[in-house]
Amino acid sequence: MDFKNEWKKLLLIIGAFLACFYLPVGKVRFDNAVGESLHLVKWYAREHVLLCLVPAFFIAGAISVFVSQASVMKYLGARANKVLAYGVASVSGTVLAVCSCTVLPLFAGIYKMGAGLGPATAFLYSGPAINVLAIILTARILGLELGIARAAGAILFSIIIGLLMHVIYRKEEEQKTTAQMAMPEPQAARPLWKNGLYFASMVGILVFANWARSGDVRAVFLCCPGGLTTYQVEGALISKTEQSLKILDTSGEIREVPADLLQQVEDVGKNSIYELIYRIRWLLVVLLLGGFSLMVLGWFSKHEIGEWLAATWGFTKQILPLLLLGVLASGFLLGRPDPAHEGVIPAKWINAAVGGNSIWANLFASVAGAFMYFATLTEVPILQGLLGAGMGKGPALALLLAGPALSLPSMLVLRSIMGTRKTAVYVCLVIVMATISGMIFGAVWG
Amino acid sequence: MKKIQILGTGCPKCKKLAENAQIAAKELGVEYEIEKVADINEIMKFGVMMTPALAVDGQVKSVGKVISPDEIKKMLV
After folding, report:
1. A239, part of any domain
2. In a designed cystine with A433, which of A157, A207, A444, B23 is the match (CB 3.0 to 4.6 A)?
3. Which is nearest to A36 in space by CA: A323, A338, A252, A251?
């Protein structure tokens, strides 16, 4: 027996045995947490995968295949108009960086061969943040406000951070590599209006299929006794007693709010256009699907359709398994937004660390986000859990803006591209910007 | 002998491109050597910004996407 090679396997088996031996099954909090994790996965599978994620993957696949990346790269090249470069860099993440692994090489390229440190940094920051899949899922699960705030914050602050980096380091002469930028092959031109309609109909299908029912009643309540953060539940009132309030919320779940946490109950004013669209939404989706199929069959070659489906499938394979793990972890650690449905981590701790909208809460969230690694999309279930466990909306945005953009591993790679000092400055800028935007958002929309 | 270089930081797309390149070279029966270039500074020396990319005998042939073995075969002749 070759002991030197076998000891690792022995250690693994001992470790697994100890974990099973000491498994805290039977402790209420642990059992509840396991239940929560399974509940959350089921909810995601039922409510979000088919109507939201699947269309989103098709859209992401289409973007990565059909949008001409070469024409976008023109604006980020060495001779590009510098002012325009910042604007393009801040939004091009949606088009260029649908796969997160391309962000770092692109950053290096724009920095050393293209428009320079400023636009490169703007792209680096906004790329992961305005990933089209992330925005769609954020808006869907964490709410439209947070989704829009995330996108707007990413774009705005990427320009600011890019400009600041440029200003701080303008005295340095960048040694541009002499290599010519290798361009992707030009694609067969399809008239812009055809591409536009194609994308618009996919987005339309996504939006209408997810048109949410508005409730009759909205209840505002605290996360935990003496907590700093409040939640809202909208739905149909089932019962109201001195002990608690029961509501059937808009996603079909019964929520019970204890009276001592209840702050306010109000009727929801109904918007007639909104309601009308809600009632005919499936008709709209079917019409759009019909038009969409005609477009695809008529305007796209078999080869193109094949490429699109392959790209879509690639994203699905890459992202869905990790998202599943993220959901399970989030459910187990943080549970659902109800005092009765906590995960392993008590809501009181979350509330103490990142509840409300203090500068400390926002800063803590930014720093934690900057160092933590989030696989694409996993920030959404984790944030959902945190929000449900007492995190304030301001710190939530701070985490959304600092989290996906940075992680300890990515900081190390950045260091190899632009050196320790510039990397440190960049990280500090990200944390500061995320904290500030969190505080502003929390103050206005919290 | 053909020198095939796959430029990319190691994500699934780069691995797929490397696989496709191997298939293409084997089907053509060409003698080949496949090298994976993962260091960003090395990748930039090729002038490549969008990974994954493929270079044959030092010349960049494809940038930014995973191409099929058939398409790679055309580049190896």
Report:
1. yes
2. A157
3. A338
Asked if this assembly's ipTM is beyond 0.85, the reply is no
Q: How far is B1 from chain A (nearest CA, A)?
A: 24
For residue A108, the model assigns a pLDDT of 82
CA separation for the pair A15, A249 (Å, rounded): 43
Answer whether B17 touches A (CB < 8 Å): no
Classify residue A142 as exposed, middle or buried by CB count within 10 Å of its CB (0-12, 13-18, 19+).
buried
Name the region of A390 (left: φ>0; alpha: ψ -120 to 50; beta: rest): left
Give me the CATH code for the B2-76 domain, please: 3.40.30.10
Across the range B51-66, mean pLDDT stands at 84
CA A414 – CA A120 distance, rounded (Å): 12
The rounded distance, in Å, linking the Cα atoms of A179 and A4 is 48
Within-domain flag for A247: yes
> In this complex, which of B41, B45, B63 lies closest to A184 when CB atoms are compared?
B63
| Interchain CB contact of B11 with A (< 8 Å) | yes
Reply yes or no: is the peptide bond before residue B52 cis, omega within 30 of 0: yes
Q: Which of B9, B45, B62 lies nearest to residue A105, judging by beta carbons? A: B9
Residue B50 token pair: 């969008």
Q: Establish if A265 belongs to a structural domain.
A: yes
In chain A, the number of structural domains is: 1
Boundaries of domain holding A242: 217-269
The answer to the question of residue A256 being in a domain is yes
Global confidence as pTM: 0.78
